[in-house]
Structures are given as C-alpha cells and as structure tokens.
Amino acid sequence: MPDSGTAQWVRLCELNALAPTDARGFDLQGRGVDDLFVVRRHALLRGYINSCPHWPGASLPWRKHAYLDQGANHIVCHGHGAKFTLDDGLCVSGPCAGQHLQAVALRIEEGRYVSALLPMPR
Ligand code: FES
C-alpha cells in the first residue's frame, strides 16, 4: 500500500462504466501497459497493481481488460495461468500459489466516480 504521506486519490472512471461483472485496466502513465486494474462483481469492487507475483512487473492480461477467467470467478495471469481470488488477490493455483496481488485502495467519490489511492512521484 502506498504511504499516505506521498499518495493521492486519482479518479479512474465512473462506476457505471463498469458492467456488474467486469474488469478494466488503466494505463495512467501512457506506457502502453496497464498500471493497475479494477475488478467489479456486483457489490464487490477491488483494485490491484498489474504485476504478477510470479514474475514481478509482468502484466497479467493477454489483451486489454482481459483480467478474468471465463466464468469471471478468478483473476487470471496469461503468463503461466496463475489464478487469484477476486476479493483479496490471493493466488489459489499456479506457480505463485499463496502469494497476493498488490491491492490498491479504492473509493467511490460523489456517489459515482471510482478513485484509487496511488503513490505520487517525488
Ligand atoms: S507471470 Fe503470471 S503466472 Fe507466471
């Protein structure tokens, strides 16, 4: 988690832009790869850094926004097939079993905007 002294809430999107079961990546730095992603499954809303614990820095999806498995029951890494729980990012199968994705704090602002607490460059 970022240090609150050097972190700032950054608005990502409107909550309504996410389907009831959805995942969306955000390339906030314009690097051509997502920095983080948000997972929504009905009332559940979670954010994670797009970096696989099996290979830190490796991007999870095989294409933009493709973070979930076919049944939308797990987050999946295309690298070597690791599966992670939606609610806490725990790897439940694959080469990094027992490790977690790095969570990003989220909040809903003004009743409709999803914002993430992110570290600010110094
Ligand atoms: S890089 Fe994600 S499972 Fe290997």
From TrEMBL:
Keyword Iron: yes
Annotated InterPro entries: Rieske_2Fe-2S, Rieske_2Fe-2S_sf
The entry's keywords: 2Fe-2S, Iron, Iron-sulfur, Metal-binding
UniProt xrefs under PROSITE patterns: RIESKE
Domain Rieske: residue ranges: 10-115
Top-level taxon in the UniProt lineage: Bacteria
Metal-binding found in the keyword field: yes
Protein name: Nitrite reductase/ring-hydroxylating ferredoxin subunit
